[in-house]
Specification:
This protein is mainly beta. The chain has one domain. The protein has 2 helices and 6 strands. The protein has a 6-stranded antiparallel β-sheet, with no helix packed on it. β2 and β3 form a beta hairpin.
Length: about 100
C-alpha cells in the first residue's frame, strides 16, 4: 500500500493507525527490501529512497484507496494490548 500525506519515516515503533476498517501498529520503519520484488519485479528500484514500514495487524478489515489514515493514541504501557476506541488525528490517505 502507498500513502499520501503521511511521512512513514517519522512514525515511531508502537504508533497505532486506523486505515479503513483495519487497525495497525508500526513494528519498524524500514527501507524497501527484496520482499517487494515478490509483489512485482522492479518495484524495489521504483520505490527506493521512499520510506516504508512493517506493521502488526491488530484488527483486520477492508482498506480502500482514499481511506483516511488516522494516528491512534499509543497504549500507556506495553502490557496494555487493547486499541483505544477514540478517533485519532487524520494524517494521510491510502492510495
Amino acid at each position: 500500500m502507498t500513502t499520501d500525506g503521511l511521512n512513514v519515516n517519522g512514525l515511531p515503533a508502537g504508533q497505532r493507525l486506523r486505515i479503513g476498517e483495519a487497525r495497525l501498529e508500526v513494528a519498524i520503519v524500514c527501507t524497501p527490501c527484496s520482499q517487494v520484488e515478490r509483489i512485482r519485479p522492479g518495484l524495489r528500484k521504483e520505490v527506493w529512497g521512499r520510506g516504508g514500514m512493517l506493521c502488526w495487524v491488530l484488527e483486520g478489515g477492508v482498506i480502500r484507496a482514499g481511506d483516511p489514515i488516522e494516528k491512534l493514541p499509543r497504549p500507556l504501557s506495553p502490557s496494555r494490548q487493547s486499541c483505544d476506541e477514540t478517533r485519532g488525528e487524520v494524517s494521510g490517505r491510502a492510495t
